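Our collaborator T.R. sent over the components below with a one-line note: 'Predict the complex.' Nothing else. No constraints on interfaces, no templates requested, no preferences about which chain binds where. So this is a plain run: every listed entity goes in together, and whatever single assembly comes back becomes the starting point for the next discussion.
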Amino acid sequence: MPSFEMHVEVTHLPGIADPAGATVERALPALGYTNVSQVHIGKTIRLVVDAADEDTARREVDEMCKRLLANPVIESYVITSTSLERA
Amino acid sequence: MPSFEMHVEVTHLPGIADPAGATVERALPALGYTNVSQVHIGKTIRLVVDAADEDTARREVDEMCKRLLANPVIESYVITSTSLERA
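Returned assembly:
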């Protein structure tokens, strides 16, 4: 069965507080970086999925995001996939 | 001064324990996903930097990663940048 390298980027929905991002945004000027704004911190998940085809892999990862990897109430996510050649 | 949208993906260096990834990898089979392997969880940081040019922006973000955003002893990071058109 072919393998696919899946990449998920999970970020806060607009309007949801991002305390880690806000903390970094406050810390950077203290280090001399006064030219930085709109800091957002999210989560990235990489995984390898065996599936019949890329569409199936993406559908399964979308389900995993809804059930475990992300919280759809406060987070959005973007899935990208790469086919891994089998040697 | 032009603005650049910078994206940093921070991941564990190879060989460094990734407990969050290991937990997800153990949890997925319990949800019925037995076709998943090599789960790695990292951090993603998006920020807007005002700089004279894209090279300067990347250099500054690289410094920020070393000083604040990542821990180079246990983490590696990849920086990507996009130029934001000024209206």
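Summary for T.R.: Chain B has a mean pLDDT of 95.
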